[in-house]
Amino acid sequence: MYWWGSYFIVNIKSFTEALFLDKITDMNIDFTTILGIIGAMFILVAFILEQKKIWNNEMLRYDLVNFIGSAILVVYGILIKGYPFVVLNLVWASVSLFDVVTDVIRNNKTKN
Fold it and tell me: Any residues with CB less than 8 A from the CB of 42 and at least 6 apart, and which?
């Protein structure tokens, strides 16, 4: 019985270390990690709100939140030297910025 209990505890410890939960509980999260979390949260919020039909991909706020999130993730990718991640988010930021500009132009035309 004791062996199974210690096996379970060791595996839980390994699992939390694999998920970096030990860093969170020790509050040793560095600036780079926080930056990555914030960038990912921006994109996830836009994605979830679009999937739930609260926002749509024609809205300025949707494109702006995607742009901000992907721009933050570009900086994060550079800091961690994850260059494929940088390329992905540069493309995402470029497309989102193009959509932001398109949305602003469209909104200005409809106001005039």
Answer: 65, 66, 68, 69, 72
- The burial of 85, by beta-carbon neighbours within 10 Å (0-12 exposed, 13-18 middle, 19 or more buried), is given as middle
pLDDT tens digits, residue range 45-79? Answer: 999 999 999 999 999 999 999 999 999 999 999 99
Give every CB contact of residue 106 below 8 A, 6+ residues apart in sequence. none
Whole-model pTM? 0.74
> Side chain identity at 107, as an amino acid letter?
N
HSE-up (13 A, CA, CB side) for residue 47: 9
Contact indicator for 60, 103 with CB cutoff of 8 Å:
yes
Tokens encoding 11: 């595996």
Half-sphere exposure in the Cβ direction for 101 (13 Å, CA): 5
Per-residue pLDDT of 14-40, as tens digits, reads 555 555 555 555 556 799 999 999 999
Q: Cα–chain-centroid distance for residue 52?
A: 18
